[in-house]
Design goal:
The chain has nine helices and eleven strands. The protein is α/β, with parallel strands linked by helices.
């Protein structure tokens, strides 16, 4: 029988310990790699302070499917937690999830604490005109009088358009009545409210002439640590791909979400221009 020396036992035990450490390290590294590719997103399904006029659940369905398709496109996993409006940001700060879907406005203070994705759904003010006006941009109303909803002054700068006389109003319906009786030449109003009016009482009389004039909208918001920055970067990459492929517009249509950017109108106009040039 072959004699086993103490040194051989020590070497064998040492090899087993080293192998165990390597396996444990690889296992831990693998788990960390998997965890780094999984994200939890907090969503306030009331969408406060936005008023979606009864489409809150449809917007939730749209956002969840959009996030899932972006995750599939970019190779990461995502799950969602529905959170109340008053604890959404608090949960992000606490680390309960890696990102939130929010209409939080990027400014110097918020940018010092969070990183913001590109807006994926714009809700800022738009320009409305009478149905018979040939107006495609705010610049077309240079030298004219434009009424605007007072609260839009929080996100819209009149100083950038010095050749237009802006008159603030508190009540949207007065704005639209003054537009119809030619007291003013245009109206700047919240995009979602504008779509309600132009598809309701003022249908056929007033039209939306522009996409939202600011970048106020829904975004993915995260903390500024490297993992969260990677999440936002991958989200923006995937969002751009879905828009380029037309899938984004299909999701808007599927969930009956208002096309505030009038992307479909732009597509139709481009197709018409191509046909006319042939």
């Amino acid at each position: 029988m072959k004699k086993i020396y103490p040194k051989q036992i020590v070497y064998a035990l040492s090899a087993i310990v080293v192998l165990a450490i390597i396996l444990l390290t690889l296992n831990r590294f693998g788990r960390e790699m998997v965890d780094a590719n999984r994200y939890v997103i907090g969503i306030d399904s009331s969408w406060y302070p936005l008023n979606l006029h009864g489409k809150e659940r449809r917007m939730l369905g749209f956002v969840r499917e959009l996030l899932s398709e972006i995750a599939d496109e970019e190779g990461f996993e995502v799950r969602y937690i529905e959170v109340g409006p008053h604890t959404l940001v608090e949960g992000l700060d606490r680390g309960s999830y890696q990102g939130i879907v929010s209409s939080m406005v990027p400014n110097p203070y918020t940018r010092s604490r969070y990183i913001f994705s590109d807006p994926f759904y714009l809700v800022g003010p738009v320009l409305l005109v009478r149905e018979d006006q040939d107006v495609r941009s705010l610049e077309d109303l240079s030298g004219k009088i434009v009424g605007l909803q007072s609260e839009t002054l929080r996100v819209f700068s009149t100083a950038e358009h010095p050749r237009i006389l802006f008159v603030p109003y508190d009540r949207p319906w007065i704005l639209l009545e003054n537009l119809m009786n030619y007291t003013i030449d245009g109206v700047i109003m919240d995009a979602l409210v504008s779509h309600v009016y132009t598809q309701g009482y003022y249908r056929g009389s007033v039209k939306i002439a522009t996409a939202p004039l600011t970048d106020k909208g829904l975004r993915l918001v995260a903390l500024t640590d490297p993992r969260s920055v990677s999440l936002v970067y991958r989200f923006d990459q995937g969002l751009d791909k879905l828009k380029q492929s037309g899938r984004f517009d299909e999701l808007l249509l599927k969930w009956e979400i208002i096309d505030t950017e009038m992307r479909q109108r732009a597509i139709n106009e481009l197709e018409q221009a191509i046909q006319e040039s042939v």
